[in-house]
Fold this sequence. Notes:
elongated; 66 residues; alpha+beta; two-stranded parallel ribbon; 2 strands
Amino acid sequence: xxxxxxxxKVAIYIRLSKEDMDRGDNDSESVKNxxxxxxxxxxxxxxxxxxxxxxxDQRIYWNKLR
Length: 66
């Protein structure tokens, strides 16, 4: 059972679109918009949720898979 004053630590994950990857654009409008929307979402969950990290897929692993 969870304590009444539990704090949930959350992280958000942002993925570059295929178009961003093709352009080599790691800080695109898509990424900026996803950050804004996901921050707003976490904030809307309430004080018991704490954003602790942001992960951005910058296709580092995609190149290894090809």
